[in-house]
Design brief:
It is a single chain. This protein has 187 residues and is an alpha/beta fold. The protein is 40% helix and 12% strand. Strand 3 and strand 4 form a beta hairpin. Helix 1 packs parallel to helix 2 and helix 1 packs antiparallel against helix 3. The N terminus is likely disordered.
Length: 187
């Protein structure tokens, strides 16, 4: 048996994997962490833990933050995420509309209208501060270790390509993905 197939449910048969899928929705992310502060300890009391984290938009941020701390007890895992949400400021996610952010947005809008290469208009808001914030919030090396050592089975996030508007998936997982025929879908 591999470590991921062994359960700590009192010697009973191994349970299936527990996956958490977190949706987008801006401030809904704070609600997600509040719900996880109750759910994760309840799972631990049953001898279970989340070993597949998935999310999109703010759910992707929460999923990776939780996955990067999957090696910690549930209270510490959630406590860190609660601290992130309490400290979160608008400037951590987007540049102010007035000032340099507004100038960049105006330049992109004009460039888009004039079809100037390299000055395409992706959105009204400049989310460039988010990249540095994600690097502060998420320990990417620990996330990779958690997947590599079997603490987690997988992490999957979905983002939107600013260039095409299409969804793009990013997956880090232990082992090979299941064959399409092995995936049991309801219905």
């Amino acid at each position: 048996m591999t470590p991921s197939s062994v359960s700590s449910n009192g010697g009973g048969p191994p349970r299936g994997r527990v996956a958490m899928v977190l949706p987008g929705g801006g401030a809904r992310g704070a609600y997600e962490i509040g719900a996880l502060s109750v759910l994760l300890p309840a799972l631990a009391a049953r001898g279970e833990r989340v070993d597949i984290w998935c999310g999109t938009s703010v759910g992707a941020i929460n999923a990776t933050a939780m996955a990067a701390r999957a090696h910690l007890p549930p209270g510490e895992q959630v406590g860190h995420a609660e601290e992130l949400w309490r400290a979160l400021r608008k400037d951590d996610v987007m540049s102010p509309i007035a000032g340099i952010g507004g100038v960049r947005t105006a330049a992109r809008l004009i460039g888009h209208g004039l079809r100037v290469p390299g000055l395409r208009f992706a959105s009204l808001l400049d989310s460039s501060p988010l990249a540095a914030s994600l690097d502060r919030w998420i320990d990417w090396s620990q996330l990779a270790r958690n997947v590599g050592d079997g603490t987690l089975h997988a992490v999957c996030v979905i983002a939107t390509s600013l260039g095409s508007g299409d969804p793009v998936g990013f997956v880090a997982q232990r082992g090979r993905p299941p064959a399409r025929e092995q995936i049991a879908l309801p219905g």
